[in-house]
Amino acid sequence: MSNTPQFEIPTDMRKMTEQSMQQVKTAINGYLQFLQRGVPSNVMGSSDLSNKVFGYAERNVASAFEFAERLVQVRDLQSLAKLQTDFIQAQMQAMTEQAKDLSETATKALMDSAKTTTMGGLSS
Predict the structure, then answer these.
(1) How far apart are the first and last CA of the chain?
(2) 6 Cβ neighbours under 8 A, 6+ residues apart
(3) Is 6 helix (H, G, I), strand (E, B) or coil?
(4) 72 and 13 in contact (C-beta within 8 Å)?
(5) How many CA atoms lie within 13 A of 19 on its CB side?
């Protein structure tokens, strides 16, 4: 038998928390969709960069909600610590990859823009 203290969130509180999380998730997803439709691609440099930014935002929000859903199911401190550690490690890895990809995409967009500007200036 484990010496780790056990605890359980009451069923009513868990249901209320899950409903609240679903409402927040729906609201955030709606907000992200609104922003994605409302931000012109030229504001972010290119549609590829814009699509990646919004795609990563959606994935990061989904990851946070998955974490919150698992958090409600935790029954002991050891599981809580492992869940937290795994989540932080996964998010750090994802953010590192996302930053690298966004940097490369932004650099490519700038280079393409510079080429287009230079080429446009030559044809005048």
Answers:
(1) 81
(2) 75, 76
(3) strand
(4) no
(5) 6
Question: Radius of gyration of the chain from Cα atoms?
Answer: 21
pLDDT in tens, 70-95: 988 888 889 989 999 999 999 999 99
The DSSP code sequence of 62-124 is: HHHHHHHHHHHH--BHHHHHHHHHHHHHHHHHHHHHHHHHHHHHHHHHHHHHHHHHHHHHH--
Q: And the tokens for 67?
A: 């974490």
Please say whether the beta carbons of 56 and 98 come within 8 A: yes
- Can you give the pTM of this predicted structure? 0.70
Using CA atoms, how far apart are residues 76 and 79, in angstroms rounded to an integer? 5
Instruction: Using CA atoms of 59, 30, 25, 62 in order, give the dihedral in degrees to the nearest 10.
Output: -10
Query: Domain ranges in the chain?
Result: 12-112
4 DSSP assignment = S
DSSP letters, 65-79, are HHHHHHHHH--BHHH
Residue type, 121: G
